[in-house]
DNA sequence: GTCTATATAGAGATAGAC
DNA sequence: GTCTATCTCTATATAGAC
């Protein structure tokens, strides 16, 4: 079975790439490294992917599937109330757990995007499109008369920036971090800010 | 005067690098590009800098000087109260204006660090050391009995992550952004959170 | 499909003349 | 100090045998 063999090679390449991306990152991982780690030749790589970016795209698709499944499990109507502590926390918890579970892809994506350079404002476009969920929830709040700190798109982007950068920084450390602690802290910071809930000393 | 001529070349290289970093970023700017843009030869570059990183270090030093001056102008005792809106806002305003003024250096630094890869947890170290000022102020608050959303180091890092990533994303767009609006929004978000100040509908 | 071998190109870095 | 010329290395990508 040729097909089975080919699929096996493809899977091996993806798996090897995932491991190497997590270890040394995307930019420092060469195509020859991936092929070698998968026990295949460099030439064989190109039978499956046009280049490194395409392989990253495949990994990203896997990650999105898995993230969608995790979100779907909980359900996610637009009417979520992000000023409800439990609901906000659940959003942050899921984001953080996806980061952790797909650390390699996250690191690679982060590197690939930042590495592409400033030129075209792609960083902003990516940030807004990936925080669209937050934005929708915030718009919903605003429609209901709640006063937000600012424009929903900007606030959503700020939340995403915090999550993304903190995730990259913390999840590329050697020492593991207490996920619950992080999620709790971010929840309280985003919900009540530094001042804390009403009546805090 | 040989010295004067050399200093001139050095300055020209720095200036060219600054321009190119802002346009296409650090990783996409080759040493030969910098030399050419400065009207010098590639060989001459090495008379002044050992490599691209060293040049970036020189730009960074300039930026830090300028930032220190801006901070010093206002004074910055440890006893700042970040739960005071004006004081928090002033901190954010200064950070944002430094980003804007030294966009090229910021972009380059960001790229250089992310590009270095996950390996050694450098991202976390950099983030914590650069948010040390926030941390100190937060520790001061905690000592005075104020209840924070979490560990001062973590909260400070989260604030810095938000600022840094949002700054990178927004300041690498083509369309300019209203700085005051951004600073106001971040101030309110960090001070009172999504829930808003006590008594908000 | 997979391999080995190789063409090609880019960029860092240095040697030596001026 | 600066330039031109060049060496060297690395990585992408392809050609052709099996």
TrEMBL record, chains A, B:
Coiled coil: none annotated. SUPFAM superfamilies: Homeodomain-like, Tetracyclin repressor-like, C-terminal domain. Residues 7-67 form the HTH tetR-type domain. The keyword Hydrolase does not apply. Residues 30-49 bind DNA. The keyword Transcription applies. InterPro entries: Homeodomain-like_sf, HTH-type_TetR-like_transc_reg, HTH_TetR, Tet_transcr_reg_TetR-rel_C_sf. Keywords: DNA-binding, Transcription, Transcription regulation. This is TetR/AcrR family transcriptional regulator. It comes from Streptosporangium jomthongense.
């Amino acid at each position: 079975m040729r097909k089975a063999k080919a699929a096996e090679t493809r899977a091996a390449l993806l798996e090897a790439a995932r491991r190497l991306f997590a270890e040394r990152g995307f930019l420092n991982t060469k195509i020859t490294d991936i092929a070698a780690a998968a026990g295949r030749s460099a030439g064989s790589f190109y039978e499956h992917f046009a280049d490194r970016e395409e392989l990253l795209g495949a990994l990203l698709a896997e990650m999105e599937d898995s993230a969608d499944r995790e979100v779907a499990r909980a359900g996610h109507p637009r009417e979520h109330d992000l000023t409800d502590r439990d609901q906000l926390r659940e959003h942050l918890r899921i984001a953080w757990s996806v980061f952790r579970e797909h650390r390699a892809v996250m690191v690679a994506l982060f590197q690939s995007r930042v590495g592409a350079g400033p030129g075209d404002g792609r960083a902003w476009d990516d940030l807004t499109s990936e925080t669209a969920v937050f934005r929708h929830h915030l718009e919903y709040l605003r429609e209901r008369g709640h006063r937000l700190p600012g424009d929903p798109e900007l606030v959503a982007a700020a939340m995403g920036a915090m999550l993304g950068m903190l995730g990259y920084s913390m999840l590329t450390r050697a020492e593991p971090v207490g996920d619950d602690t992080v999620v709790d802290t971010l929840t309280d910071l985003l919900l009540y800010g530094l001042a804390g809930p009403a009546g805090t000393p």
